[in-house]
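Late entry, written up from scratch paper. The run itself happened at the end of the previous shift, but nothing got recorded in the book at the time, so transcribing now.
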Amino acid sequence: MEKLFARLDDIYPELVDFRRDLHMYPELSHEEVETPKKIANYLSNLGLEVKTEVGGRGVVGILKGNHPGKTVALRADFDALPIQEENDVPYKSKVPGVMHACGHDLHTAGLLGVAKVLSENREKLHGTVVFLHQFAEEVIPGGAKFMIEDGCLDNVDVVYGTHVSSTQPLGQVGIREGDAMAAGDTFEIHISGKGGHAATPHLTVDPLVVGSQVLLNLQPIVSRQVDPLKPAVVTVATFQGGDSFNVIPGTARLAGTVRTFDENIRDHIEQSIKKIAKSTCEAFGATMEYKYVRGYPAVKNDPKETKRVEKIATSLFGSEKVKHLQAQMGMEDFAYYLQERPGTFFWVGGALEDEALVFPHHHPRFNINEKAMLTIGRIFIATVFDYLSKD
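Output as recorded:
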């Protein structure tokens, strides 16, 4: 195993170059054109069987070992975000208003490094490794759903995924059994009232006042209708209506998100928002239209596979580097893979050494310690051999 890790170290500069190229030329979800071409070309040069346009824009590389056995899938995402980069680095995004602000470029380069090392050691592999390079993780319904429908998990026995964290120390590994990341849904409430002059509000049905009351009435859903021992979030993040100081508008729009782990609670909240919004609007003489979109399901990590990664990470980096994390209310479409196959999703630290340069994900100054690719690579390589040799 040490020879494989040494080889990973050898190709590290190559991985950095690949990651920085992706960073300079980011592509938004469902608009990825050049990125999948670069990935497919890299995998093809390794001699892997490569499938393109999987589910739309996904790329799948298949590495068959010299010996029969089970099949392990490893996943990385490669879409960027609609954010203008503010970092002053040589590899700053050259695409206005688009940047890799979540580490997907690093995930991709890191997984390609794993593919290269394993492809050079086919004679040691007792089974098959499938490399899932996924598009459109950042937008609902997510590329994972489409890739699965297109057969990316056919014959796969287990699947692993990871995400780098810009705020966790380099070398740290975060794990979580069971509920790891929440299901994420969106809702919109369009309120129709009666507009008019701001000086004669009694002649109107003010949708801003109605919308304000709707917003307030939604708050007790979690605090008074949901078991306090079961996590849930209802957030109104958008409230739009009117654009003049002396005109009461005729309409207003509220939009937000719901995060849950329990499907019964998810169902209840969806219906409760509708009932509260409808009754509140009726009380003030307004009407409303309601739209609720189910997003990613909750990420539920398989206990056995989570323990496997924990054991491997502990052996590689020491128990002090392995952290048992709390469930997160963020969402990840890796959940779709886990609905189909056992597996686990874990986190690796990638904070920069200079604390002044550490920014959260989806921030215009987000950046990551590229050595996190070596952490990812070691865990993936060791996990592949552990699974294929013991199961």
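Residues 2-180+299-390 form a domain with the Aminopeptidase fold (CATH 3.40.630.10).
(Scratch paper discarded after transcription.)
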